[in-house]
Amino acid sequence: MTDTLPSETSDTTVDPTATPTPTPTSAGGDAGPEVWVDVCAVGDVPLDRGVAALVAGAPVAIFRLSPTEPGGEVEWYAVSHVEPASGALIMARGLVGSADTAEGSIPTVASPLLKERYDLSTGACLDDPTRSLATYDLRIVGDRVEISPHSG
Amino acid sequence: MEKRVVVIGNGMVGQRLVDELLARQASPDADADGVAITVLGAEPVAAYDRVALSTYFGGATLDDLTIADTDAMAAAGVDLRLGVTVTAIDRQARTVALADGDDVAYDHLVLATGSDPFVPPIPGHDRPGCFVYRTLDDLEAIESWATAEGRTNGVVIGGGLLGLEAANALRNLRLDTHVVEMAERLMPQQLDAAAAGMLQRWVTELDVHCHLGFATRSVVGHGDPDDAGAPVRGLETADGEVLEADIVVFSAGIRPRHQLAEAAGLAIGERGGVVIDDHCLTTDPDISAIGEVACHAGRVYGLVGPGYSMAAAVADRLTGGDGTFEGADTSTKLKLLGVDVASFGTPAPDDDRVEFSDPDTKVHRRVSLSGGQVTGGVLIGDLSNYDALHAMSTGAMASDGVAALVVPADLAGAAAPAVELPDSVQLCSCNNVTRGECKVAIADGNHNLADLKACTNAGTGCGGCVPDLGKLLFAELDALGIEAKRSLCAHFDQTRQELFDLIRFHRHGSWQEVVAAHGRGRGCEICRPAVASILASLGNGYVLEGDRAGLQDTNDRSLANMQRNGTYSVVPRVPGGEITPDQLIALGEIAKEFDLYTKITGAQRVDLFGAQLHQLPAIWQRVIDAGMESGHAYGKALRTVKSCVGDTWCRYGVQDSVTMAIDIERRYRGLRAPHKLKGAVSGCTRECAEAQSKDFGVIATEAGWNLYVCGNGGRTPRHAELFAVDLTDEQLITYLDRFLMFYVRTADRLERTAPWFENLEGGMEYLRSVIIDDVLGICDELEADMAHHIDTYECEWTATLDDPSRLSHFVEFVNAPEENSTPVWISERGQRIPAR
């Protein structure tokens, strides 16, 4: 890890054996007690282009994906901003997209460095099973984006 | 134990033998013992393409002509000794003696010494100004004599195949060129009077004067007629008339260089040449002979094709096979002075003939038949039916519908039949590759031209068969039910070229429009940047505007080059590599203030490393204040146009290469393309700007500029190829406008110009026909698209800094604009680098 943060409070180490938690747009899950951090306005996150945020000191990449078909729903995802191969804080600057798999179409983000693709909903790497991204629960309250600081 | 194979001669055939031996040794079923190869070459340079020698004066360099891969040879342990002369063969001791006193031992010796030009013993044949035409040294001697002050007239003695090649060389030296031939027609060995007459029409149109039935009595000199050392003034005929000549080139046939073999007691043919059997063995079973020095069944072959077949047979035998050479087809298909000429088969004088001659198009076709079977023929000016007629002459296919292949459909009253060529028909004559072999390679998965060429070697010699190869490829892919085109990715069925045309036609300006109309899903890291690039090439303004920001690949997204630790490098544009002291000082001060690692790039620019995302606007503001602009190092776009100092400073320069490089770089700056684009301008043929390794390279000549295209450095280096010579400034810019836009429009994503060119069906001839002759009728569009780009260009960093809303791209954390992560740095050689 070659980056340190101004406020060194979080552990961004990824446990590849952890079961990733889906990140619904509603509050959720059994990832821990319900603590939500207000991060930014919905409008601060451009469509299909990630932004990074500090959530309780942890660098998190937030994505707001446009619907894949007319009239469909906007989808939100939050994953670790730390690029697993290099340790650099850059995942929010990766290209988003969709990949067709046996389970259907999944939302992806590609590493800005060597382009490994990660499933935004689970954090699993599609090109290298030894890597994964931590995922975060995210919810929209009014026009605010809130994230739970406990990574999945 | 390894068999010691010594090859005397490093010409085209000798080199082919080495290549064949190495290829066989590399194959998995090679003989374990192998061969140790020593090559003894008399010329100081490794094997080069003698067939293409006349292109040397058209701008081709030694590198272009060289066919020997000396690095691969060295890696394979070949002992290549150049500039050495063999003085004798000792057959008892099995050694050859070198002029420097050294002896080289052999287990098997191969003579590949080729031939010497024949110089008829007419008086004055050795005057200063008389030359032969065989080696690069000959060419250099011809060039230095011909380009001296006041020499304007050149005469070639000999109107055969080699003579016309030599005439092309003199023409390229801008001499008023004459060909004298003793017979009453050109190419008397191959052509009948009617065909030769048609060839003469072509040749005369190229301002080459033909003098037929011309008997040279002597070569006369200036001044005292008895002074044998006086330089040449002309050729005197039997009638006492003199044809003025400042230079004379003898090209009156060749004689096998068999002297070594003769002195060693090997049998020599009646008309010269070392006698060989069907195994290419001489009368000594430890010695083979191949190429123009060999005499097989009483015949010496003056063509490279049969020489290659002999080389293959010998290589096969030396590696345990039983290859044979049982004579060769001397059918030839070639371009002489740019004219298509072919002769095939061995027709007899009393055969039936089907003949067609059209003085308007200067096309002539004659086919001879015996008992309804094609026996041979001649084609001038149009070779489109050569393959079929040739196959009929060898019996590879039935002689059906011959008249329709000779006479145009409107005269024949019937359209030419659709001809299905058999697999045994040769497709590439340089490398003896059949259509069947190409079909197998296609079936094995070589589904584009570049792969197919690499796999089969077809089309890698003279390149003349590449259009045929392309046609075969697409026909086979059709037959295999494979869509020949490649779709961009899972989200778009179109090729990049098709998508480009659709976006251009529909004037789409955003990703949403493009994906809704032509694609599906959310896209991916392949199609999103490809669409971004197309939208940018078509002049849709600021690349981070609207939904295009989310399409940009890593570097374009931040208008800087991301490095391994997530920080960026900054590269200002330095057009042509010219930079003022104040600009250099400014860059130094910026680097010091932001603690940026500084390195000079290979493209004559300065790269500043270690900038964090939030620092980019401040750094660029300083760069722009110093009078510089974005260098687009982050984009698949025009990078740099490198230059040497040219005639402004250099003693050798002949044009102002710096000004031209700056003009070109400014003209095309910011042009987004399927991949990055690099150019260079050299001020003379010394080529200090390395223009021939660029996508487009310009080299100054006394008369203007030579343009080279589609070169590449990097992983797969490729020399740029000569596109056009002696261009004016205006011609150069026009061709570059069209060339670059044609590439931008038609290349695949991330395809540099070099592989794009490799895959371009029709090769250089096609490219010239599009760019120079406008056969597609698109040159106006290409120029208009380029003009639009030039008119709408803006420095992307100026545009970013001028609009505060665009600065949000350069904030690291959306909820903490004041906070920034801090990479871990260490110091090395006085500069800051990422911790390892």
Give a brief outline of the structure:
The complex is a heterodimer of chains A (152) and B (836). Chain A has 152 residues and is mostly beta strands.
Please report which band the strand proportion of chain A falls in: under 5%, 5-15%, 15-25%, 25-35%, 35-45% or over 45%: 35-45%
Mean pLDDT of chain B: 90
The biggest sheet of chain B amounts to:
5 strands, parallel
Low-confidence stretches of chain B are none
* Poorly predicted parts of chain A: 1-31
**What distance separates the N and C termini of chain A?**
20 Å
Helix content of chain A: under 10%
Instruction: State the secondary-structure class of chain B.
Output: alpha/beta
Q: How many helices of chain B?
A: 26
Q: Termini of chain B, distance in Å?
A: 50 Å
Number of strands of chain B: 39
Strand order of the largest sheet of chain B: 3-2-1-7-19
Q: What's the assembly state of these chains? A: heterodimer
Structural class computed from helices and strand pairing of chain A = mainly beta
Q: Shape of chain A from CA axes?
A: globular
Radius of gyration of chain A: 14 Å
Largest sheet of chain A: 3 strands, antiparallel
Spatial strand sequence of the major β-sheet of chain A: 2-10-9
Helix content of chain B: 25-40%
Overview of this protein structure:
The complex is a heterodimer of chains A (152) and B (836). Chain A has strands at residues 3-4, 37-41, 51-55, 58-65, 75-80, 96-101, 104-110, 117-119, 136-141, 144-151. Chain A has 152 residues and is mainly β. Chain A has a 3-stranded antiparallel sheet, with no helix packed on it. In chain A, strand 3 (51-55) and strand 4 form a beta hairpin. Chain A is globular, with a radius of gyration of 14 Å. The two termini of chain A are 20 Å apart. Mean pLDDT of chain A is 81; it is low at 1-31. In chain B, the strands form 11 sheets. Chain B has a 5-stranded parallel sheet. In chain B, strands 9-16-10-11-12 form a 5-stranded parallel sheet. In chain B, helix 12 (435-443) crosses helix 14 (466-479) and helix 22 (729-746) packs across helix 25 (779-792). Chain B is globular and about 95 Å long. The mean pLDDT of chain B is 90. Chain A binds chain B through residues 2-7, 39-40, 44-49, 51-54, 59, 62, 65-66, 68, 70, 83, 86, 88-90, 93-100, 105, 107-108, 110, 112-113, 115, 117, and chain B through 490-491, 511-512, 516, 521-525, 527-529, 547, 549-551, 553-554, 557-558, 562, 564-566, 812-816, 819-824, 834-835. Strand 1 (3-4) of chain A pairs antiparallel with strand 37 of chain B.
